[in-house]
Specification:
By secondary structure, the chain is α/β, with parallel strands linked by helices. It folds into 2 domains: 251 residues, Ribonuclease Z/Hydroxyacylglutathione hydrolase-like (Metallo-beta-lactamase, Chain A), CATH 3.60.15.10; 58 residues, no CATH class. Helix content is 37%, strand content 21%. Helix 3 crosses helix 5 and helix 5 packs parallel to helix 6.
Length: 414
């Protein structure tokens, strides 16, 4: 080996080469590269493989934990959703009138609104509960003691759908109702028997009216059956015997836990046959204290008592609220929870009042229906079907009656 011009011996060259190799190896180790004596190639592969296996295992365990967590969260959400479901039926004390509020899962349905004088009460009832949106408004029929206070509801709350058996009717109360509908750009939907719609998770079915040709507005009342879970409610408006029989004949399911008694407990409603079909456990009468119609009638109370029905009354107990969990029912009353509701509280007509009525009959020329604004001869068959509270016996000429705003009956042609 030559270095410069001097020839190096073989032995000196080997020593120098060995020293150079040692310096190179030392430099590689200091740089973190693979060094002789530290690891073999097989050991390094096994180490890398073990790390990859551990990473894969960690990843799989994390994925499984995330899946279990997601499933638990879903179960908690479903459980929370079930807990949030609720149902309440409010029977609002509006005196000698009807108003009920049904709440289910954040949605609301108002069934009737009492008299026009109850508009402020209905407005306040909704406002107190912050119910500024009504999924449905139901005017069971166009008489003032049902449609009157709906103007108050529409003055506070926006509505989606409004049901009524007619789209027009005489009277200031119905006119006000229509005006407030127009302000919201709403129109009346006339439902048909058999229609079904949902209120939250509750199912609502329209059972009546069946016959819209009835001369008695009470018998054109919208009748609703509401089912929530295993519990059920029947709202009958002012339906009387005629409509009750029509609904039974139509074959609809009537069996209900709670019955809103028809026509304020009048004797012409809640017949024995109807009660046998409904088989209620509870009933609510919306009625005014000391009303002049003798409501609830002694006969109706007797039928309810014979059927073993637990009765609640707004005249004695104020607002009545029924709560359902889908399986059982609980009632709360504003006052007098333990009142004897089967007591006949209304005064019967005195002999003097009966004599005055008979005298009016003897001298009357016509019978006026102050609700429909139609007048009849006393012998007209429609008079027998007329609600007593709408009858006015009039003595005078035909022209005088017409001047009062009444139209002649199409049957008897007075």
């Amino acid at each position: 080996m030559l270095i410069g011009r001097k020839r190096m011996s073989w032995k000196e060259g080997c020593i120098l080469l060995t020293a150079a190799m040692m310096v190179c190896l030392a430099g590689c180790k200091s740089c973190g590269d693979f060094a002789v004596g530290d690891y073999s190639a097989g050991q390094e592969f096994e180490a890398v493989t073990e790390k990859a296996s551990l990473f894969s295992k960690d990843k799989n365990e994390t994925s499984a934990e995330q899946k279990v967590s997601a499933e638990n969260e879903m179960k908690r959400t479903e459980s929370s959703s079930e807990q949030e479901s609720y149902f309440e039926a409010h029977f609002i004390d509006v005196g000698q009138a009807d108003a009920a509020l049904v709440l289910c899962d954040g949605e609301a349905m108002l069934i009737d609104g009492g008299n026009a004088a109850d508009s402020d009460l209905i407005y306040s009832y909704l406002r107190y509960r912050s119910l500024n949106h009504l999924r449905y408004i139901v005017c069971t029929h166009a008489e003032e003691d049902h449609v009157g206070g709906l103007a108050g509801a529409l003055n506070y709350a926006a509505a989606d759908t409004v049901f009524c058996p007619v789209t027009s009717a005489n009277g200031r109360a119905f006119g006000s109702f229509r005006n407030y509908l127009e302000k919201q750009g709403l129109s009346i939907t006339v439902p048909s028997a058999g229609d079904v719609f949902m209120l939250g998770s509750a199912e609502v079915q329209v059972l009546g009216p069946i016959n819209m040709d009835s001369s008695e507005p009470n018998n054109t009342s919208i009748v609703l059956r509401v089912v929530y879970g295993e519990t059920s409610f029947l709202f009958t408006g002012d339906a009387e015997k005629e409509e009750e029989e029509d609904i039974i004949a139509a074959g609809y399911t009537l069996d209900s836990d709670v019955l809103k008694v028809g026509h304020h407990g009048g004797a012409s409603s809640t017949t024995e046959l109807f009660l046998q079909s409904v088989r209620p456990l509870y009933a609510v009468v919306s009625v005014g204290a000391g009303n002049p119609y003798g409501h609830p009638a002694r006969e109706t109370l007797s039928r309810l008592s014979d059927a073993g029905v637990k009765l609640y009354r707004t005249d004695m107990q104020g607002d009545i609220i029924c709560t359902s969990d889908g399986k059982s029912l609980q009632f709360s009353a504003e006052r007098n929870a333990d009142a004897d509701t089967m007591e006949f509280a209304a005064e019967e007509p005195s002999q003097e009042e009966i004599a005055k009525t008979n005298a009016a009959l003897d001298s009357a020329d016509y019978v006026l229906n102050k609700n429909t604004k139609v007048f009849h001869y006393l012998s007209c068959s429609s008079v027998k079907q007329m609600n007593d509270k709408n009858k006015v016996y009039y003595t005078g000429t035909r022209d005088e009656v017409i001047e009062l705003g009444y139209n002649p009956c199409g049957k008897c042609h007075p």
